[in-house]
Amino acid sequence: MEKRVMTDSKRRRGVAAAAAVLSGVLVLSACGGGDDQAKDSSPQSQAQVDKAAAKKVSKARIAIAPKNGATNASINNAGKVTVSEGRLIEVALTTESGAPVKGTLAADAKSWQPDEQLERSTSYQLSAKAKDDAGLTAHENSSFTTVSPSNSFIGNFTPEADTTVGVGMPVSINFNKPIADRKAVQSAITVSSTGGQEIVGHWFNNQRLDFRPENYWKPNTTVTLKLGLDGVEGSPGVVGVQQKTVNFKVGRNQVSTVDVATKTMKVERDGKTVRTIPISAGAPSTPTYNGQMVISEKYKETRMNGATVGFGGEYDIKDVPHAMRLSTSGTFIHGNYWGGRGIFGGANTSHGCVGLEDAQGAGNPGKPGAWFYNNSLLGDVVIVKNSQDKTIAPDNGLNGWNMGWAQWKAGSAV
């Protein structure tokens, strides 16, 4: 009996030993290490390993905007990189074709951004590298796609930045897509003046928004337009992409009054009459609009073709001198060299424009047409009175001054 017990005991020890060996083989097969590695996998030693590894990781934390994989990314704000607890040592932004995008690293090496606005409907890849105070490096990569033209809108504005204009020049914005959420869009636009005037926006339709004060701008002031449209949803799925500030100056106060009945124009500057000019306005069958009109374009010479404004082939003059647009529909105040001298101050003969005596070729500065052109700014006001025609529509050109203040304010969405 004892002998058999001894045998069983030995057998049990042998099985245990075999199990231990088998366990070692399994550990070796699964982890690629031996008994020493198995000992290192204990909770205490693993914590020590993690702690040691953490000491070798850079403290620098890189952040890239937008997030990796973003679509409809802003063309103004995408591609910006910042870092905390370190400094950037390398940033590369490229298009999907590999074309590099130039950018600027801040003086403190804490941020980087593209030098110019990104392109729409373009995929970009960005790679950034930073180093902490211990000299350890960190890396971050991202890719994103900017918003497409079909999913974005812009506003084309008048006047241009850094120009000097007359007191009648409104801020007029024409959007390239219909705007459904007028309140959201108008709320993202501000217009202010150093003259302290109240400025209100008015929607003429779902693509045109104009801003003006109750009365003409105060002369010699500065007007600032801020477009904060980036990311603003103008219509479902269609967002703005503009983020910019524009300044323009208002010059002297020049308002010219055309009296169709007397066939004269009185030019007043800062309240004083500087010149009275004989004119020829629209004939009785094609009268000139009444009302306050703003000079919106100037051409030293231009072609005027009656077919483009509904007059068929009645006229086509290819070198009209000193032409200044007063309406979208084709009203101009311009020089006239083909009419007899007697018509100026003597007869109204035009198809609706206001004509001043001038010379062919626009080369004689002594002629009234040349003088008025050289002494006028975009945004100057030309008032026409005593015509047999109706008052011009406020949205026909930059002529919102022909709308009362209460009605103007009623067209605001905010």
Automatic annotation (TrEMBL):
Signal sequence interval, chain numbering: 1-30
Protein name from the UniProt record: Lipoprotein
GO cellular component: extracellular region
Keyword Repeat: no
L,D-TPase catalytic domain ranges (all copies): 254-385
Keyword Hydrolase: no
Pfam family, one: YkuD
Organism of origin: Streptomyces clavuligerus
Single biological process term from Gene Ontology: peptidoglycan-protein cross-linking
Catalytic residue positions: H334, C353
Keyword set, alphabetical order: Acyltransferase, Cell membrane, Cell shape, Cell wall biogenesis/degradation, Lipoprotein, Membrane, Palmitate, Peptidoglycan synthesis, Signal, Transferase
PROSITE patterns attached to this UniProt entry: LD_TPASE (PS52029), PROKAR_LIPOPROTEIN (PS51257)
InterPro entries: Big_10 (IPR041280), LD-transpeptidase (IPR050979), LD_TPept_cat_dom (IPR005490), Transpep_catalytic_dom (IPR038063)
Record pathway: Cell wall biogenesis; peptidoglycan biosynthesis; Glycan biosynthesis
GO molecular function ontology, one term from the record: peptidoglycan L,D-transpeptidase activity
